Amino acid sequence: MNLSMMLTKRLNDFTLAADFSVEGNRIGIFGKSGGGKSTLVNLLAGLLTPDDGEIVLDGTCLFSASRKINLPPERRRIAMVFQQHCLFPHLSVRKNLLYGFKRCPSELRTIDFHDLVKLLKIDKLLDRGVTNLSGGEKQRVALGRAILANPRLLLMDEPLSALDDTLRFQIIPYLKSVSERFDIPYLFISHSMVEMRLMTETVLVVEKGRIAEQSSSEQLARNRMGQSPVGFINLLELEGMVERDGLCVYRWPGGELYLSGGNCDTPAGLFELSSKDIIIFKRHPEAISARNLLECRVSSLFESGAKIGIELECDGGKLLAEIVPEAARELDIRQGSLVHAAFKASAFRRLSSCESRRNSD
Ligand SMILES: Nc1ncnc2c1ncn2[C@@H]1O[C@H](COP(=O)(O)OP(=O)(O)OP(=O)(O)O)[C@@H](O)[C@H]1O
């Protein structure tokens, strides 16, 4: 997908002035509340009309003030999935889904209904009403309805923010796999950095009505690590859990990781570990209470706000830690240095279990 938006839109005392071109199939729109994210996507979908400028999507001009072009929303072939799923409460799951299908011109009805419902794991729900579905099921039906319209672009405006953490991370694989399977690019809006990293490749940062930054989602997370109260979140896919001495032990490329808390009830999953929870030692500490101690080589160092980020290769796995510049000087840490990284078994948090991630298979 290739999208360029060069436009202005005034809404009372708020003005959005967008000027960007972006290429890719998994694009993120990130920024604080009130920055203009929804306004941007509403302009793209044709729900709002720019005061001036141009919108071009894959070579098709959707809007041009100078050429007096303004394609109506239904001709833009852009589908939307919102935080609130907006399903028709009086219709069954099947009828809600078919609503998307019927909106699609017959020559474009290339999405296989049965293939899609199987992929979304809603094939057993087709004859149920939508009012008593779980939040995650409703969101999968809403996604299915949007996909059945065979859009050229899917806009997802905070589709996960009404869901609790467990459901949020269960639904992400569906969003990604459906887009990949049916080759439909998406624009994903969120103010969660972890969601950005799991869902997108390139991110546009919207601040005060401007595109303040455009970078890869990983780079953005590194850039913001120093200012973030949660630091940089290491996302670790761990498997092969066994219980030992009251802790759960997962495989790590060159060894094992010890986790505690509610992490033991799944054989595999996606876990987070903050850069703030990793302590760096120059030499092997003689004795330490933290259950995880890995020998690591520093692969790179970078500045982020008032912090130094340290990329580590630890026994074949990668971690990112942060320290203050003074500590980096005292420890004389440079690229290539050998260090030891320690972190507690309790520092991990499970985002999703392997079962939910396999839903995307
Ligand atoms: N129809 C409108 N009329 C007047 N002002 C509006 C209108 N729609 C949005 N705004 C204002 O425009 C600004 C940007 O709103 P927008 O919803 O685009 O932000 P956002 O980044 O999506 O925020 P959030 O993350 O909270 O959804 C806000 O100050 C909002 O109050």
Automatic annotation (TrEMBL):
Q: Any idea where the ABC transporter domain is?
A: 1-233
Originating species: Pelobacter propionicus (strain DSM 2379 / NBRC 103807 / OttBd1)
Gene3D superfamilies per UniProt: 2.40.50.100, P-loop containing nucleotide triphosphate hydrolases
Coiled-coil residue spans: none
Q: Which residues form the Mop domain?
A: 287-352
Q: Which GO terms describe its molecular function?
A: ABC-type transporter activity; ATP binding; ATP hydrolysis activity; molybdate ion transmembrane transporter activity
A cellular component annotation (GO) from this entry? membrane
Lineage of origin = Bacteria, Pseudomonadati, Thermodesulfobacteriota, Desulfuromonadia, Desulfuromonadales
Its protein name is: Molybdate ABC transporter, ATPase subunit
Keyword Ubl conjugation attached: no
What UniProt keywords are attached to this protein's entry?
Answer: ATP-binding, Cell inner membrane, Cell membrane, Membrane, Molybdenum, Nucleotide-binding, Translocase, Transport
